[in-house]
Write a structure and sequence with these properties.
Elements: H1 3-22, E1 25-34, E2 41-50, E3 56-63, E4 66-78, E5 81-86, E6 91-93, E7 98-100, E8 107-113, E9 122-129, E10 133-140
Antiparallel strand pairs: 1-2, 2-7, 2-8, 3-6, 3-9, 4-5, 4-8, 9-10
The chain binds copper (II) ion.
């Protein structure tokens, strides 16, 4: 093998490895909603599939559609009473696993909306992962969407 062939093989191997790693995070079925046009906050939901081959963690999210974004979940504070709370330490995304953010469960909380979430508009949300880095997701607004089967109800969203 000539030197030139060796170099191209090495470059090809690098090109194959890097995008596969970055592309290994798949965001499926994202949507965002607010409880009403006047709502000051909303939430985004999605499924995140980790095909990168290594464990990762969703550590934060941001968007120009809201002044502040937090990763939230619901906890049961007393018998049957659920309350939203900020997730400490991020959301683990184990290799090969799918994390389902859904109503009544984990969600991306959009606080201080910069405008109403209009039905069928889209917002861009940047997810920041510990290893995969920033992933920009275009999320359609679907205020009419019903809670997923298995969700515990709608609560404040
Ligand atoms: Cu919340």
């Amino acid at each position: 093998m000539s030197l030139r062939n060796t170099l191209s093989a090495a470059v090809a191997a690098t090109l194959l490895t890097v995008p596969a790693f970055a592309d290994g995070i798949m965001v499926m079925d994202p949507y965002a909603r607010a409880a009403s046009p006047a709502a000051k906050s909303g939430a985004a939901f999605m499924m995140i599939h980790n095909e990168t081959g290594q464990d990762d963690t969703l550590i934060s999210a941001s968007t120009e559609a809201a002044a502040r974004v937090e990763l939230h979940t619901h906890i049961e504070v007393s018998d049957g009473v659920m309350q939203m709370t900020e997730i400490q330490g991020g959301i683990p995304l184990p290799a090969g696993g799918t994390h389902h953010m859904m109503r009544g469960g984990d969600h991306v909380m959009l606080m201080g909306l910069t405008g109403p979430l209009e039905q069928d508009a889209t917002i861009e949300v940047t997810l920041t992962l510990e290893k995969a880095g920033d992933i920009v997701v275009t999320i359609p607004v679907d205020n009419a969407r019903k809670p997923e089967a298995g969700a515990h109800g709608d609560h404040s969203h």
